[in-house]
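Minutes, project check-in
Item: structure for the 143-residue chain
Input as provided by the requester:
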Amino acid sequence: MNKFVYPVLLTEDEDGGFVVTFPDLPEAITQGDTIEQALNEAADCLEEAIALRIDDQLDIPQPSLSNTGEYLVPVPIQTALKAALYLAMREHKMTQVQLASILNIGEQEVKNMLDPHYDTKLSIIEKTLTALGKRIELQITAS
């Protein structure tokens, strides 16, 4: 099971703002003047870090458990679903061409499904994940 909620650490800087770091994604660093702004920036930074890992065909680590003083930041839903698809393809050692053949669609459609900046319909991603033996489960929690 893949989870897409990552712990972040906010460290107060010398100007009274906050530096945001992700223990699981060392390349993801941002900042904000307030805690609220820092967490908003963290969400954007996290989305871009996951998108870059997909684009660069790198591993996407499972989130570690949060420690005292850390906040939890979710990956936006569309990006999380695309990351889940990317990870399922890696698990099956499947290329984009192979997936396109299984789904009887063009390779460009698969590329679009994996592109975090391309708006893909949820039903298409769900159908594709199902073809790879995965299903989507949604969990809503209090913030």
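Outcome recorded: The chain has five helices and four strands.
No further action items on this chain.
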